[in-house]
Known about the structure:
By secondary structure, this protein is mainly α. The chain is built from 10 helices and no strands. The protein has one domain (2-238). Helices cover 77% and strands 0% of the residues.
Amino acid sequence: MLAAFRALSAPQRSARADRHLAYCLTFAAGAANAGGFMAVGQYTSHMSGIVSAMADHLTLGQAALVGAGLSAFLAFVAGAATSAILVNWARRRGLRSEYALPLMLEAVLLALFALIGPRLQSWAWALVPLTVMLLCFIMGLQNAIITKLSQARIRTTHITGLVTDMGIEIGKALYVNGAGSTLPPVRADRDKLGLLASLIGLFFAGGVLGAKAFMTTGFTAAYALAALVAALAIAPILEDLKAVFRPKDRQA
């Protein structure tokens, strides 16, 4: 089991490891997105809706709502930037945890979401905007992780892109190639189509289970998500820590 989790966030990547990590993170993103909506009444995984809402609020002269949307947007960008910083910092030092570090940060932030959640009602004026920013930061952080390690082939929070790519592959599958054509035939990438369908289904399943868990157990459900993400990251981090604290004579 530990070896399987180690492979998911190890610096040496394979298509299988990328796919399985994407499965776990997409499920977690769907659950966090749905749980976040239950908590603050706003989805935080996609920037298209937030930017569109900012434009509407600006047109209507609702400056406070424009500011709220801008803070959410900047938090998402900051999350993605933080992921890139952590990955490149670890990579330049030859650490095995280059992808595990941002994953562990995500786990810590999910636990923080669970911790502050019960206080939202009492301090809504301050904590709700901060919680929206926290969730957007988490989404940006996670999306950047899977984007970097898969060379931008996979997204875990950007379902619009997944659905678009799935539609393209379906169009290729339905295309009728002419019998007398000298051009290469149009062929669908069925493996990619299966991956896309799986990711969309897992995001949906995560959303359903996340919403149900939130309604049943409240913010405690976020601790389970934090534990899942931490389990994905812990092995490479422990290996780096062992290398740091290993006695000098053994290293020699």
